[in-house]
Amino acid sequence: MLEVKGLCKSFGALRASDGIDFHVAEGETHALIGPNGAGKTTFINQLAGTLRPDAGTIRFAGEDITRLPAPRRARKGLARSFQITSVYPGFTALENVALAVQARSGHSFRFWRDARRDPALTGPARQVLEEVGLEERMHVLAGNLAHGEQRSLEVAMALATRPRLLLLDEPMAGMGADESQRMIGLLSSLKRRQTIVLVEHDMDAVFRLADRIAVLVYGRVIASDSPEKIKMNEEVRRAYLGEEA
Amino acid sequence: MRARLILWGIAALLLIALPPLAAALGQPYYVDLVRRILILAIAAISLNLILGYGGLVSFGHAAYAVGILGFYGIANGWIHLLVAIGASALVAAAIGAVSIRASGIYFIMITLAFTQMLYYLGISLDVYGGDDGMRLKSRSQFAGLVDLRDPVAFYYVALGVMLLFVFLTYRIVNSRFGMALRAAKSNEARSRAIGFPPYPYRLAAFIIAGAMCGVAGALYANHTGYITPGLMAWHQSGEMMFMVILGGMASTAGPVLGTFALLLVEEVLKGWTEHWQVILGPLLVLSVVFFRRGLAGIFFKPDA
Fold this sequence. Notes:
heterodimer, A: four-stranded antiparallel β-sheet, B: mainly alpha, two-stranded antiparallel sheet
């Protein structure tokens, strides 16, 4: 589904991505872990198209997308959530998701009909909101939702584009224990029918959700394997898990 | 929603009743004054179309289109309108294609720079009066339909067009197109991530605003009966922007309220002193400080 080869990105002297190879198979949940500053978000931004790599290729569903701008990638089925919550604060939860539905429903050069009363948009949007458990909050302005709800809303927006691959950049960031449990529940319900790349610090979540785990340190993937083998890997323990395992 | 419709209804009725009232009071001047306000309100409405600053570049040269056509003996009002709208849309497309790529203050500065170019072009056109501008040879003629030389008839045309444009922008802002535009304004990174390329939508808004403001320019030329390069100068753009900001951006009523408030206050102050700008300036600053969401923010809650 996703094939990354030799991806490089430098900011001045800092090599944030230093020849990353990364493969995601259809249907799997592939976690990406690594200490702070390892270059995880830089990597995700290159996958999503907000950063252009210096070298290397990204192939998605058999097609080279290395040079495609972000909106085109989104339309090809690459959806993402942001590490720092990114919603439309002045719009209701329903409108936020309806916009994501609209984005995948062809062009938006339609000037007359009221989009907020268009069942072709609000119908699928409601469904997704139900799926993530926000249906009772759908008429609340996104800016007034609790932090955890906003994180769920982000996932809902990504899902509403009907992605083939979901890129989640720390979906549990800043969540309380309850909220995290709910998010883990949501993500496990998506497993199998949705291919997911999950960047996450919460090891509990990673080991419960991931089929495979890649470990990124200083812009390099030092290991990529099943969760069991990653736990046993000496190099990973030293570089990263050491303090926690 | 219903309260808003009622307010709009009352405002429309008052405006419809104005000409007979003014006639009864023996003050026909008021018809002239409010007609001018209505025409500028049309311009302000077009500017308010999210990122619709395309209107800035259109107002003056649309007026010129009318004047120049008249100069060559073409008096047909439909041709005037067609050319004014067409020229406005074209110029807006050309300028927008460049300025839309910048954002925020740079976008507005580039847009204003282009309008200044048109201003100097107007000054250099000696055939059409250069610096002094020129008188309209004749008003736009809509044979049999309406005679713009009749001040009251013209007033109702301006009122009708303004109400039509209020309704048009209301529809556009709430359509899929409007939602995509407003979303990109609210959070561009998010819009890109769900698959909205912002550029084509912004450019389209810029062009629509340009075309709408072109109508205002054509009416304004008929209103004053002469055209000057000053219509294209940045003072004019600045004043129009202020109408929108004063009234409140991101609301349909805002630009109309702002235009009425600004021009009526201006009118009153002019009656008191010739140094009216000394008073108006601080008033405007205070209004921006105290009414963050503009005058419309006092009457209406934000669109939700």
